[in-house]
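User: quick one, fold this
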Amino acid sequence: MIDNKIFQASRPERVTPTPPLTHIEAWIFDLDNTLYPARSNLFDAIDQRMKAFIAAELDVAPDEAWRIQKTYFRQYGTTLRGLMLKHATDPSAFLDYVHDVDLGLLDPAPILAQALDQLGGKKIVYTNGCGNYARKVLGQLGIEHLFDGIFDITAADFIPKPEPAPYNLLLSSFNIHPHKAAFFEDIPRNLKPAADLGMTTIWVQNDTPWAETSDDVDHIDHITDDLVGWIRAVLDAREPTRPLSEEPKSSAKR
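Assistant:
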């Protein structure tokens, strides 16, 4: 587990102990490649369907579709946002198509469920994807019952992270005080608006191209490549002698 450390030579190294974060009352999680590991390749499947959708929608070759896809992602925060602005693409058609993937790529995550359950507090998923897909992913992981809500791209009026406006809308929608919230993301730039609002930020690091960052990581408070391990460290910092129970408590959706 990496905690507040960036090992790449081009990035500054910052190391501090994992804090107990007892002031945190709300835990906000990105979905893809954050609540499940990037090595599952689920988002790779979505990525391929984005390329196929663009090729058909714009009548271009696959290589050109891929170029458009990545250009729009960099410029607009999501491929969908670029397609909507540049080509008046129907967002529902795009979202339905790209999220029609095999969720069997994901294994159930009972250890994650255990850690989330013992973490306590309000838990929200904030995704640039659609809510129906997010619910299916949470269900496949076995953690849907632990979350209080999903803030998806539709709730954000199709304005994606890292645009600042939906972050404020998220907070008001769920009555969250930013100074009492922690925000988990695999894409570093999406943490900047959260940090600007006063949230504690955690970068869930992976090796995917879209998760790369520059040397500017001042807006990131903590870095880990092991979400469960990081949550466990927070729990241990709160109660150093308390081992995690072998079974998660039954928890109704709050």
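User: anything notable?
Assistant: The longest strand covers residues 122-126.
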